[in-house]
Model the fold of this input.
Amino acid sequence: MFEYLPPLNDHNLPYPDTIHPIVVHFVIAMVLFSFVCDAIGYFTRNVRLYEVSWWNLCFATVSIFIAVIFGQVEAGLAEPYTAAESALNLHTLIGWSLSGIIAAVTAWRYILRSRDPKTLPAPFLGVGVVLVGLVFFQVYLGDLLVWIYGLHTVPVVEAAREGVF
Amino acid sequence: MNSSLIDQLQLGTNGLPYQIPIHPNLVHLTLGLFIVAIAFDIVGVLFPLEKPVFKLLAIPATRSNFFDVGWYNMLAAAIVTFFTVAAGFYEIMLAQPPSDVESIWGLRAMETMLWHGVGGVVLLLLIVAMTVWRGFQRFVWNRDKARQVQWAYVFAGLGIFALMFVHGTLGAQLAAEFGVHISADRLLEMGQDPNVVLK
Done:
């Protein structure tokens, strides 16, 4: 079966570079900026920022599903060594959960916005704090996979192929 | 940077005084905010064509709101990018990549770092210039117009996307090919097993 798949390069990928860390720009930046806009809008009563927040959240929702798809492909090809496994498992679990959570928060926001786009209930901001915390933790786990364990980097892939681990 | 100078600092396995590099995390914000700013200005410019789609999806949408996203995201990108570049220079000055490795683009580590450093300053300049340009369109030239953004601005943004792609790939090569500030890669270079040391 493997002969029908494209050949893997020295990053152990069928395409030049990892795509997941690029797609996550649009989840991380948009979720965080959406919260910043809500918080500033809430305390300064600048309702225009609520709209900026809403559209950023929409963009994050679309992006996270694409991020999960590429994340799953690249996790499948990562061939993690034992030390990296638990971080990868937790990153995968939280990634899938975040796709549901962000979609649910966006759906809630859609209803709030449909009722009255000029007000934002405080509980939504509270959920925003939790969401931001979760995104930070998920980014930290992703950082571990790249910057500590070096998954998909040339030296680690080379070592794995040579049977160093 | 001269390695004996770097050795004067107390650094971890990754060559930094902290566990995880800061620059690549700020890059998420710079790129995300800039690209989405331009994307929403495009949505705003093409709004008459999209009206039926938003109606079909039952999403209330006002044209001026898309331009709000375009403006505020661009402003935030400009602010964040000063920190992105600052962190980048801090971490590039502490980089000690292998000298015998060549990237897939045929560049060695020093050339890649020089281009990535210069490119970072050029991009910061372009992002700030785009923010000023966008500000003039929003608050002076097109203040009372339904279409706030000029086509030239949108195309300039798309051109910067291309530059960002090249620049970002150089940055990715510094990490994934040269192993700059990656603990596992540095351990392998030192002849140690990350699977044992990083457990």
Notes: Chain B touches chain A through 47 residues (CB under 8 Å).
